[in-house]
Amino acid sequence: FAERILTTMKKWLLLIAFCCAGLIPAGAEEPENVPPPPPPPKSEKERRTSFAIWRAFSSLPEKERREMVKLQRTDPEKFRKVMTEKGEALLKADRDRLIELRSMVAEYISTADSDRREELYKKIEANVRFDYFKRLEENRRHLEEMKRRARGLEAELNKREKNAEAAIKARIDAILRGDPDPEAPRPHPRRKK
User: With a threshold of 0.70, does the pTM exceed it?
Assistant: First the structure.
């Protein structure tokens, strides 16, 4: 029985090898328009910094956020530098608050004086409350941004749905003219190559 399974597996492997052999001709070189491989995964520090940049950007007042968007379009390097500084400052402030919280907790645990413990408890509570509501507000802003994007996507979808017949006719005309693969992905209109 085991020999039969092994023979069947060998047949399947031969069939797969035979089918795959014709996919890449011998001596074929890579085409010239091959995109570069994806970048290596970001380090933990880079991920933390990019998240901090997002947090810093989303916490900016609306007017300053608009100015930063203009800067991003006109001088992307300067934008990246400014936002990286803001993100790193935010991370430093978070680290400092955490260090302060840990020291208060350590003192709370080691203190026998009930008045001092009560005072520390109130400080710890205020610290935790501040952080909690700060994150809650960040989450609310993030949700509002996602809703705004969803409304934009829905409007675009409705527009495409409304223009479906014209788009279908245009695609048929392109196919009949012999245009190169109308189904091929097209570059994003706002992104440069």
Answer: no
